[in-house]
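Quick log. Single chain, no ligands specified.
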Amino acid sequence: MHTGPLTRAARWLAQALQDWRVTEGERWIYVAKTLTAAFCALWLAYRLGLDSPSTAMTTTIILALPSSGMVLEKSFYRLCGTLLGCTAALCLIGFFPQQPVLLFAGLALWVGLCTSGAALHRNAQSYVYVLSGYTACMIVLPAIEQPMQVFALAVTRVAEVSLGIICSAVVSSVLLPRHQGTQVMRSVEARYAKFLGFCQDVLQQKLSASEVEVTHLRFAADVAALELGRSAALFEVSDAVSHVRAQNRKLHAFNSTFMTALTTFYTFHRLVERLQRDGQSRVVEACAPLFDIIAEALRSRPSQDSLDTMQLHLQAALAQARTQIDGADIEHVQRIDFDTVCELLERFARDMSRFHEVYFSLAHDTPLDVSAPQAYAPKTPPALVIASGARAAISLALLALGAYFLAWPYASTAMLMAAVFCALASSVPRPIAMIRQVLTGFLIAMPLALVCVYFVLVHGDGFPMLVLSFAPFLAVGVYLMSNPAKLGIGLGVGTFMTQMAPTNLMHVDGAAFLNTGMALIVGLMLAGVVFAVILPEHTMGHKDHVGPALWRETLRACTARLAQGSANKHRYDNRMRDLLSQLNAAAGPAPGAEARAVVRQALTLLEIGHSVIEVRELVATSRAPGVATQALGRCVDGIAAWLRTRGDVELQAAIAATLRAGACVREAQLGAGAERALRLQTALADLHSLYTSLLDHMAPAAGDSHAA
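-> predicted structure:
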């Protein structure tokens, strides 16, 4: 059909506008909403006669997040943290009136405990701990010389923060809202498609070993991100997000089934790599049709029917492959390899079917029987928790004493800024990089604020002119905040600019401006020095802490009390993936060789932990304990002893115990019934996985990889 030039131009313009709306337009909508909330809070603060209107304005900048759910969640926890911090400040002033040394000691202890709590939880609730720590500082420090004013300071602080919270929550929920529930469902879709593509690429040998490791690291981060998004979506109140709230259990199940399928697939992938490396062509050839069935089922977006059909075809192909292997003249150890591959393929087919079932129910809102939710919970190594609290307490005590004895009137402002960012940066993986970004924002904002206040604002009159004076400069920071790579710089520009907002009775004081700006910058620099000097290696996600924590979690899988159902595997997966998520955040966009080495270690330990849990569950549910059951128990004890010491002697003992258990299980299979023989075959597959994983910790020629 022929169209005129005007019609084509209109279509081109409409398409261009649509493209702009979903890319750059989203950023400018974010800027407009944030500025609206900021100036609404400032105007209301003026109308209510609050002492520090800039605090309400700064609160809206801090709460400027992409979705309404995130804003509501952070607002709730910010309010809780503010109330808790004000209560702590009142108690400290009441306990130690006009006793600055004891007051500083109590304040340092409180901030240390709060910072440790934030590092321990590392989720949205951690914001309560961060706020309660530095809010107490904001109340206590100005009240040292005037303790009778502490209650007024606390009430004013709560009022100013609450005003900013209300404005941010209303604007984000009413003005062109971007619902977190919608983002969660998009993440579910993206994760499912990404996992299918990853499995296809691995089966077709398109990915190198380092690419597989980095992908596992990214998947661990995706699990944590989905959990954070899910919790934020629960704060929204609209029909658009009721889907997420109603399917809360399904989202937990989605994460759980994904981690299970991913671990099984990696175990299978590693075994196939070993077979190819050892030159076992007969086993690989017999298994090739099985690989093709899996790859074909995942090539196009599968349905539940196609996955059920895949399992039927897989069963038929397995029977044919077993006949082929039985008729071949191969060694017994190669038959064990073949049986292990078959066991893992069947397990992956079941895991993938369950994962798809949960995904389909989420995407199409169909009924699904889900047991009690097994939530993803963060797990921080204890050394980092203790170090975060100690660093914050020590730095605050030293800075507070220095500020108290200095003659500079703005020293308390610098100290307060240092305390705030010591608390904030303790729960992030790269604190110095974060502080450097915010410091860059402060340095950019200082000349902007000078021009805004002393060359533009002084020529205006009334609130509309104040908005016109501040908006262009504040928009620079908010626009930078819309780019995740420059979030810290934008936050620095935005918070610095809002601190320069005039009070109700505006007065121009150049010396105060310079002193305040210098105090903010010096305080931030002091926070950077604190992280560079005090326990610099004890930061979130550091490989030297993540690595040992992975070993401890695997040891716990060998020794912890078993729970009912699949809770044991889920708990173990949960903690291991969370540690990998921390490592991913600390490693940045391009993980180095050392980070990838920790990932390789983690994936090997995951394989060991899963196999140990299955063996322990088989032993615990055995109806007729015998020699095989006792041998399996001793095998688990040997692996636990090695995990505890990581010594060569204990490793050799664990390998020997695994070999003896394999011999006992094969002997028990000879006279076992059908059901027991199946359980013993599963145990044998787990023993083989354990043995080959243990050999990964030895020299390349330290043992026979098929002896189990």
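The chain has 26 helices and no strands.
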